[in-house]
Amino acid sequence: MKLYLGLYKGEVVSVGSLVCTKDSVGIYDIATKEEMRGKGFGSTMFNFLLQEAKQLKNTYCVLQASPDGINIYKKSGFQVVGQMTVFENRHLFE
């Protein structure tokens, strides 16, 4: 796993990660600080990670998309192949 930070004026404004397996690379955990959203930082991080993934020359590139990010991925040619249900228990750690 490789973790990446996106900096703007010395401040971390976005993050992302690549997870590599034998034949695939996953693009995950892309997030942008709430007050910095809508300024292209998430798209920039995604495009950077996509270029890094292409250099690895794996067979597949996979990702999971939130509703906020799905259009970025579709514009780059990714297709929806399934849906995932996420469960959480916020009270577990109280």
Automatic annotation (TrEMBL):
Transmembrane segments: none annotated. The keyword Transcription regulation does not apply. Keywords: Transferase. One of its GO terms (molecular function) is acyltransferase activity, transferring groups other than amino-acyl groups. CDD domains: NAT_SF (cd04301). Coiled coil: none annotated. Residues 1-94 form the N-acetyltransferase domain. This is GCN5-related N-acetyltransferase. It comes from Bacillus mycoides (strain KBAB4) (Bacillus weihenstephanensis). The lineage of its organism: Bacteria, Bacillati, Bacillota, Bacilli, Bacillales.
